Amino acid sequence: NKRMGIADRGTPEYEEWQEERRKQKEVNWAIETGRNENGVFGERPTKRGDGDAYDPLAATEAYWKADAGKMGIDAGEFDPSLQIGAMAPLGYFDPLGFCKRGNEEGFRNLRAAEIKHGRVAMMAAIGAVVQHYVKFPGFEKVPAGADAVNVAPGSYGMIALFAVSGAMELSVWTENPALAPGNFGDPVGLNQYTKDMREREINNGRFAMFAAIGIIAAEILTGKDAVQQLGF
């Protein structure tokens, strides 16, 4: 806080004082305008707390995006209708408005849930057919269909499957924010993570969810497993 005069110019103390003043002015300017030291928007300094950022462009950004959207101009917001899964014949189908424009985090959560349920449903639908013909050793007397979970040792197998799946999901199959939802790598090396294959998976998963629900509902109503429902 020492004041320096003309007579102090050129001294080490004066140079140090000038440097401190320069740094303080940079911090003040950054806090008041919402810029960092390089003049880039959006990065607020950590010194002296957050402060109240204000910048004319930042203050009008929301209004500009709203006006741009009304005129059909892409304002750079996240658009769920442009993501993988919006395809023919329905295109972007969200009649209840779950996915909001600009809410990428919400979309990612819903997409991850859709892919996860689709994958489970595909295995469930196939399993409902296979278990009519194939019995593991020790499971010969376990009935086919949904009733298998109510009869030992089928119930034990269901508990074990549930525990293993939960452990894998919490420790191995965890979502990575840097990757697309449901992307857990390519451990087998198939090199098929393309737009076409991703859309195929989503489509098949959506179909399988209806199929699995239909199989279970029909079995509850008729008492027949997946294959018996087909008349075989």
Describe the structure in your own words.
With 232 residues, the chain is mainly α. Helices cover 49% and strands 0% of the residues. It has helices at 12-33, 56-70, 104-133, 154-171, 195-222. α3 packs across α5 (195-222). It is elongated and about 105 Å long. The model is unreliable at 42-57 (pLDDT under 50).
Report the total helices. 5
Question: Could you describe the largest sheet, including whether it forms a barrel?
Answer: none
Question: What proportion strand?
Answer: under 5%
Class computed from helices, strands and strand pairing: mainly alpha
Spatial separation of the terminal alpha carbons: 93 Å
Q: Total number of β-strand segments? A: 0
> What sort of overall outline do the alpha carbons produce when their principal axes are compared?
elongated
Encode the helix/strand succession as letters.
HHHHH
Poorly predicted tracts of residues: 42-57
Oligomer: single chain
Radius of gyration: 30 Å
Residue-averaged pLDDT: 80
